[in-house]
Amino acid sequence: MSIYRNVTVFTLTAGLGLASCQTVDLLPTSEFTSEPGHETSFTPTTEAPGNLCENGECNDDNLLDSDGCFECKWTCDAEPECEETPQNCPSQCSSSNCGDGKISGEETCECGGDDGDPCVEELYWKEEPLSGSCYNCTLAQWCGDGVKNGAEACDTKGQSADCEAECTKVVCGDGIVNSLGGEECEGDLDCSMCRFVRRRVFVTSLRYCGDMGEYKQLDSDPPKYECNDYPADKGSEKGVGRADQRCADLAEKEGILKREDVKAWLSVTSSDGENMENPKHRFDASTKGFGGRYVMIRKNNEEVVVAEGWHDLTDGTLGNAILVTENGENINSGGSAWTNTLIDGDAEASQVGNDCNDWSSRDGSDLGNYGLAAKADAQWTVNDSAKSKCSSGRRLYCFEDPAP
User: Fold this and answer.
1) How far is CA 290 from the centre of its chain?
2) Distance (Å) of CA 354 to CA 1, 137, 204, 360, 396
3) CA dist., res. 262 & res. 285, Å (int)
4) What pairs with residue 19 in β-bridges?
5) What angle do CA 122, 123, 129 make, to 5 degrees?
6) Interatomic CA distance for residues 230 and 213, integer angstroms
7) Which residues lie across from 262 on neighbouring strands?
8) 28 near 4, Cβ under 8 Å?
9) Which of 51, 55, 181, 308 is 20 to 30 A off residue 151, Cα-Cα?
10) Cis amide linkage into residue 222, ω under 30° from 0
């Protein structure tokens, strides 16, 4: 039987008819005792029960209110220092203790003094302040600390696919190129929706003689080749215009470009240097400028960058050699292409007559300049020693260059 504090105990002395009554302060339990022929009474105990709070915050097996646990909840203890939390003990862990040189409660720093953190006058900084900078007993916050603070839209400790280093969301048009988020450009020439405009480049899978007639293998052993006539149904185009038609034929067959948007990288030389039949004067990219990307597309749709715009194309070095054909396959590393064109897109004017008679001859006595398809340096388009009989077969470089 359990008895609690301030219990009245009634005592009866057998045989004398005497009785007495008194109030005693008991601990939470008492024991009832009775022996035959003797007085009967309640005897208080001084031991606390073994488990007062099975489901409480704390359990110290007593009802003292000064030891940090009272009525099954954490409270302040008798020590004045804050060893609890402001929620459990606001009187000892109040924010009013900021400045006492001791980090307590919700404080994260104490500034000043020989051992204190650097004091600052603002909580939030755009850039990282001194290590441990403290404002009103709270560590300073800044863009780049990895925590979304203040007016920040995000904070990933630097640029990420979703967040800029300036703690703003990634937005096309914000002037920041975020490659991690898929952006390639911001406001540049030929930049659309933060991606460069693409123009396709390929080397022909077929070879042509100096007059652009197809160079075909005969059914013979050993193999022999001959130059076929340019098809009459292709029109009366000659020279560079005929080369454009050859590029357009292949692009149209594969369904990759419009006929009118393809031009051959080929030049005609004139003794006075006034001939305009060369990429520098014929290509829209040169006359109007092109800042997008020249790319090859492999059969698996892999994109291979040749150059970053016209200026990069004509600086003497390519990003990758032009070895991919119109159907996405690679030619062998020994391939070559008719060019007679300098790295800047102009004609090779110093060697008049090395253009297969304005690209209209298949005669073995005429010569034509060519470039090496496997090269990514200047030799891709011009090589002083790279001359070939016009009766031989070479490929063509074809560039997407939309009609104005």
Assistant:
1) 26
2) 121, 82, 21, 12, 16
3) 12
4) 12
5) 80
6) 5
7) 400
8) yes
9) 181
10) yes
Q: Is the dihedral angle over the CA atoms 185, 187, 193, 197 positive or is it negative?
A: negative
CA distances from 245 to 211, 262, 263 (A): 12, 8, 8
pLDDT at 269: 86
More confident residue, 134 or 270: 134
CB 174 within 8 A of CB 159: no
Tell whether the torsion through CA atoms of 178, 184, 187 and 193 is positive or negative.
negative
Q: Above 90 in pLDDT, residue 158?
A: yes
Q: Summarize pLDDT for 180-237 with one digit per residue, the tens.
A: 999 999 988 899 999 999 999 999 999 999 999 999 988 877 878 889 887 666 666 7
What would the mean pLDDT of 10-15 be, rounded to a whole number?
A: 46
- What is the CB neighbour count within 10 angstroms for residue 215? 20
CA distance 2 to 353: 122
User: Mind listing the pLDDT tens digit for each residue in 302-329?
Assistant: 999 999 999 999 999 999 999 999 999 9
What would the two tokens of residue 22 be? Answer: 């008194």
Question: What is the largest distance, in Å, between two alpha-carbon atoms of the chain?
Answer: 155
Is residue 390 helix, strand or coil?
Answer: coil
Q: What is the pLDDT of residue 84?
A: 65
Residue 15 has pLDDT above 90, yes or no: no
* pLDDT bucket at 42, cuts 50 / 70 / 90: very low
- Domains along the chain with CATH numbers: 7-44 (no CATH), 198-400 (3.10.100.10)
Beta strand pairing call for 387-389 and 191-192:
unpaired
Query: What b/e string do you get for 31-69 counting C-beta neighbours within 10 Å, with b at 16 or more?
Result: eeeeeeeeeeebebeeeeeeebeeeeebeeeeeeeeebb
Place 29 in a pLDDT band, splitting at 50, 70 and 90.
Answer: very low
Q: How far is CA 291 from each of CA 257, 309, 402, rounded to the nearest angstrom?
A: 20, 4, 14
CB neighbour list of residue 378: distance below 8 Å, 6 or more residues apart: 316, 317, 343
